[in-house]
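User: Is it possible to get a 3D structure for a protein together with its bound compound? The compound here is hexanoyl-coenzyme A. I've pasted both below.
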Amino acid sequence: MSKQIEKIKELIAKREQARLGGGEKAIEKQHARGKYTARERIDMLVDEGSFEEYDMFKLHRCHNFGMEKKQYLGDGVVAGSATIDGRLVYVYAQDFTVNGGSLSETMSQKICKIMDMAMTMGAPVICMNDSGGARIQEGINALAGYGEIFERNILASGVIPQISGIFGPCAGGAVYSPALTDFTLMMENTSYMFLTGPKVVKSVTGEDVDSENLGGASVHATKSGVTHFTAKTEEEAMDMIKKLLSYIPSNNTEEAPRVACDDPINRMDDSLNDILPDDPNKAYDM
Ligand code: HXC
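Assistant: Yes, that's possible. Here is the predicted structure of the complex:
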């Protein structure tokens, strides 16, 4: 076999391995929790065949706490460009099957790369978070990685749309960053947004609190206002993100997309006559 063919075979094998993220068992566990994997989520969101992945083989550089032996191709995030309804978008999805989707220095470099490209191209960034936040084993390097992401969230604000989907238990930076973006969508019953999880809360403060009350969709949609939308299934969540995108321009210099309207211009709706009461002191249903 020629050297080239050997290399191509190696490339194909590496791609297959990267597509497995944290491995088959971890994927089964993810599915058993009623959650899709990072790659399945991207496939559901973008136009078929449009996803162009970057840095598929990137590895972390941490040698603390035996992490040098815990290496997964792509390092826990799938990132790249794609189209949605034919419009260019940049997407990244954190992979909970790899170290709980936690953010390493190298993962932050992958994320920052697509954020920078989105700014250059004037295209939206859609992030799908499923992550325990900064990778504890990396200490300050992971925190610095989040610093880079937060800075880009701020610089992109008002320039390109930033949409965050929360698809699992998210802690620390995996929550602070979405909170800096324009729109946040949470999954009901399978996603959480908190500074840290219930077990850590219990060990640090002694307080018993479950995930839902600490940071479930019900809390953030009705009390804190952190999330704008909630969805019952991941399929519904993807449809909501696509619909949201269809209303907004790709950047601050473009117009919103225009679609042909098939609602007749002379359509009458008598129910509109009764919405506002005659008496201005009377309350009405907003
Ligand atoms: C490294 C992590 C991790 C993290 C989870 N894991 N979070 N590894 N760093 N931050 C790993 C777990 O060790 C485990 O690995 C796997 O991911 C799945 O986690 P579980 O705990 O088994 O899952 P679950 O019970 O669903 O709980 C998920 C969780 C919980 C709620 C996210 O893991 C948790 O509370 N993690 C700590 C979160 C935290 O304190 N993050 C804050 C980071 S500081 P194995 O190998 O056992 O499968 C931060 C600040 C940023 O982000 C500020 C920047 C300036």
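The beta strands are 52-54, 77-84, 87-94, 125-129, 162-166, 169-171, 183-187, 192-194, 229-231. The mean pLDDT is 96.
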